[in-house]
Design a protein that fits this description.
Blueprint: E1 6-19, E2 24-39, E3 43-44, E4 62-63, E5 76-90, E6 93-106, E7 109-110, E8 120-121, E9 124-135, E10 138-146, E11 154-159, E12 167-171, E13 176-184
Antiparallel strand pairs: 1-2, 2-5, 3-4, 5-6, 6-9, 7-8, 9-10, 10-13, 11-12
Length: 185
């Protein structure tokens, strides 16, 4: 285990919502993040250097990762979405029928504490959708889907157990569908 002595994270985020009229609304956000190790002189070895030896044949177990990218941080991430809704009644409840979708994306990132050639996750975009009825009081019903295009993606790549030079992955959620029923007093 090791701790970075100093890191630097800077970025900016912009988000907004706009309602075009009583039926259409849109939202979006974009974030830029730059995270780097300023000083990390005792970083764990990246996967490809496991078992490495110096010029004298002596194994080493740490390296200087100063200046490297922090793990888990995409330089760019963003969402865009929209909704169409109209007034109506369902089961005697006043509210709005709606249909909506949104997309979420992020750029590639490393999932290794020390930058590695093998533990980098490619950028991806996920599409979500929902349709339903939102009551101001009473029963609301929403049918929803996440990752509806069933995009295969990784949440994390990491060295396998025992750090024997292989790696494992945490898979992203597959296409998932459901229904939510809510009652508001």
């Amino acid at each position: 285990m090791a701790n970075a002595e100093k890191v630097n994270v800077k970025g900016a985020e912009l988000d907004g919502d706009i309602k075009i009229n009583k039926h259409f609304s849109f939202n979006s956000s974009v974030a830029y993040t730059d995270g780097k190790y300023v000083t990390f002189t005792n970083a764990p070895l990246p996967l490809e250097e496991t078992g490495a030896k110096d010029a004298n044949g002596v194994a080493y177990y740490a390296k200087d990762a100063s200046g490297g990218q922090l793990p888990g941080i995409s330089k760019w991430a963003g969402t865009i979405g929209g909704e169409y809704s109209t007034e109506g009644k369902l089961l005697g409840n006043t509210g709005r029928f709606f249909i909506a979708s949104d997309a979420y994306g992020r750029s590639s990132f490393s999932s290794s504490p020390t930058p590695s050639a093998y533990l980098n996750i490619d950028s991806y975009i996920l599409l979500n959708a929902r349709i339903g009825f939102r009551a101001s009081k009473g029963v609301s019903v929403t049918a929803w889907g996440r990752n509806i295009l069933d995009k295969n993606y990784f949440e994390q790549l990491l060295p396998g157990a025992g750090n024997a030079g292989h790696y494992a992955a945490v898979l992203g959620d597959p296409a998932t569908y459901g229904i939510t029923i809510k009652y508001t007093l």
